[in-house]
Amino acid sequence: MVSASGEGAGVSWESEARQEGDGGGGTARGLARICALAIVALCAAASIEAWRLESWTVDGAGPGLLPGILLTLIAITALYTAFAPGDPQLEGGDAPLLTNRNFQAYAVGMLGTPLLIPYLGYITAGFVAVASIMRFGEGQSWKSALVWATALTLSLTIIFGVALGVPFPPGPAENVLTKFGWLRAG
């Protein structure tokens, strides 16, 4: 452990946050780490349930494969976020959370995607969510937002829909790809 003066062999995150904090930065880093570690714990609990489902069947990917892989990736990302060095200042400065543009864009994207999937299918809903988050939350140009949305949606569709045969919920794009035999009907 490190003393308040920063002396000692190991550095704890509390002392690191105190040393780096200039006007609340340490609090932001500590809160970010607590949230990231809570996400890891939730992913671990959900992962246990996901991996209890079949991950592979005679027909291809089972119902537990996609959630298991995604939860593992989210947990790895959260662990990195918890311990990666970086600026402890919150994005958006001193803006209250609910009026922060980044927060609003991500919240609409995260809540809107599952609401749109029954009507538009995964591919279209995912594309709209990523493009919107990149444009309005991250402030990217429309060109950049559309390129990232295309790359991410196409990658996930190829990996999970085509290569692993995970059935996607029906939608306009899924219907076209199913007619060509590239996707399994959901």
Explain how this protein is built:
- The chain has 186 residues and is mainly α.
- It folds into two domains: 1-90, no CATH class; 96-186, no CATH class.
- Helices cover 66% and strands 2% of the residues.
- Strands 1-2 form a two-stranded antiparallel sheet.
- A hairpin with a 2-residue loop joins strand 1 and strand 2 (60-61).
- Helix 1 packs antiparallel against helix 2 (25-52), helix 2 runs antiparallel to helix 3 and helix 4 crosses helix 5 (142-163).
- 19% of the residues are buried.
- Mean pLDDT is 78; it is low at 1-25.
Summarize the helices and strands and which ones pair or pack:
Blueprint: H1 13-20, H2 25-52, E1 56-57, E2 60-61, H3 65-83, H4 101-137, H5 142-163, H6 172-179
Antiparallel strand pairs: 1-2
